[in-house]
Amino acid sequence: MSPIKLLVLAILLYLGYRLLTGGKKKDKAERPAAPTEQDDAPIVDVLVEDPVCHKLVPKQQAIRLQHKENIVYFCSEVCCNRFVSQEGEKE
Ligand SMILES: [Zn+2]
To answer: What is the 90 CA–ligand 1 centroid distance (Å)?
Structure first.
């Protein structure tokens, strides 16, 4: 076998190898994209009124206090403590 034929054979083998591996990569690229995680429902934030300073606070961030039958929401622990002490004075 002449060296040129060997070289051609090597190139053909290399090209065949490239086609095999390259073909697999192309198949992966043509797969449908994974569903994005952007279709999560947006968090609907409800505003609740702080009974101490009457500020409107997003419910998710508000300080919660179980008060008798109701849950009361506060903008901060300061307002919560003030509310508790005010309720204590009433009784
Ligand atoms: Zn407040």
So the answer is: 19
Cα 43 to averaged position of ligand 1 atoms, centre (Å):
23
| Three-state secondary structure string covering the chain | CCHHHHHHHHHHHHHHHHHHHHHHHHHHHHCCCCCCHHHCCCCCCCEEECCCCCCEEECCCCEEEEECCEEEEECCHHHHHHHHHHHHHHC
At residue 21, the pLDDT reads 86
Q: pTM, whole model, 2 decimals? A: 0.50
- How many Å lie between the centroid of ligand 1 and the Cα of residue 41? 29
Q: How far is the CA of 52 from the centre of ligand 1 (A)?
A: 6
The token pair that represents 13 in the structure block = 């083998």
Distance in Å, CA 88 to ligand 1 centroid: 18
39: pLDDT strictly greater than 60: no
